[in-house]
Amino acid sequence: MSGAGIAIPAAPSRSRRMWRRYGLAGIGAGIVLAWLLVALLAPWISPYNPDFVDVANRLQPPSAAHWLGTDALGRDCLSRLLWGARISLLAGFTVVLLGALFGTLVGMVAAYARGWVDEVLMRLTDLVLCFPPIILALAIAAALGIGTTNTVIAMLVVWWPKFARLARALALVQRGQEYVEAAVVLGLKPSRILGRHIVPNAIGPLVVLVTLDVGNAIITFAGLSFLGLGVVPPTPEWGAMVAEGRELVEQWWVATFPGLAILSIVLGFNFLGDGVRDWLDPKARSR
Q1: What SS3 string covers the chain?
Q2: How many CA atoms are closer than 13 Å to the CA of 254, on its beta-carbon side?
Q3: pLDDT tens digits, residue range 236-286?
Q4: 76: phi then psi, degrees, rounded to nearest 5
């Protein structure tokens, strides 16, 4: 049979392959960068004071005077949304970075020390992991009291174990490599072996987890604020703003816009994290 009539599809161009692989990552990076700029410039770009109460103009729909409308106390929703980005982003970055730092330290030490040190640290990690994170964070936040600092502390308690588990697995792989064994034979100190040889070669998956996890931290902090255990009123924060508008069905703008803000920043970090994962994966880059 002749194959002259069979069309062979052309291979996608390099630019098309790059777009499929990194296009969404670029969009995610743009979203994250935009929100970071909003958080930094909030004092200068907010049209009103976010805490200014104007009861005469309460629950006004979006208009030229108030682009996103006003809430139940007449406060400008756009101004509160812009200022709320500061609290949400700062809380998300703080929880993930500190949790990653502590968890990575615990996991690396456990993997390198082995023996009873590994057993104690991993059993402590399992003890925290056996509770649902949001439930444990909710209980700790309720015990500590309302406040941004207390909520961040409550989240930190439940956030580090995932990094400890991943860091330990990565360190165990690196510990069996020849260059680590050579360093041990040369008599290098354990801290030097960890800092100069194991951590740099195991950092890739941890960076991916950090990037993906910031969005999760933001939405968890917003959930705790929604339940009344986050910021202290009248501090503007996205989860608290959604809570303020949950019963205002006709005044849809009060809860909708902060909800969309949470959705956008979580999607942005997820897209960015997927791109970072592909970029750090040699097999993905070779395709």
Answers
A1: CCCCCCCCCCCCCHHHHHHHHHHHHHHHHHHHHHHHHHHHHHHHHCCCCCCCCCHHHCCCCCCCCCCCCECCCCCEHHHHHHHHHHHHHHHHHHHHHHHHHHHHHHHHHHHHHCHHHHHHHHHHHHHHHCCCHHHHHHHHHHHHCCCHHHHHHHHHHHHHHHHHHHHHHHHHHHHCCHHHHHHHHCCCCHHHHHHHHHHHHHHHHHHHHHHHHHHHHHHHHHHHHHCCCCCCCCCCCHHHHHHHCCCCCCCCHHHHHHHHHHHHHHHHHHHHHHHHHHHHCHHHHHC
A2: 21
A3: 999 999 998 888 878 899 999 999 999 999 999 999 888 888 777 655 555
A4: -70, 120
Written as six digits, the tokens of 278 are 């592909």
Instruction: Determine contact, residues 163/209, Cβ cutoff 8 Å.
Output: yes
What does the alpha-carbon distance between residue 204 and residue 173 come to, in Å, rounded to a whole number?
Answer: 13
Distance of CA 153 to the CA centre of its chain: 16
Gap between the Cα atoms of 5 and 231, Å rounded: 68
Question: The tokens of 81 are what?
Answer: 């949304």
pLDDT at residue 197, as a whole number: 66
pTM for the whole thing? 0.85
CATH topology of domain 21-42+74-286: MetI-like fold (1.10.3720)
Q: How many CB atoms lie within 10 A of CB 47?
A: 11
Phi, psi dihedral angles at 70 (to 5 degrees): -125, 160
Hey, where are the domains in the chain? 21-42+74-286
Q: Around Cβ 59, how many Cβ atoms within 10 Å?
A: 16
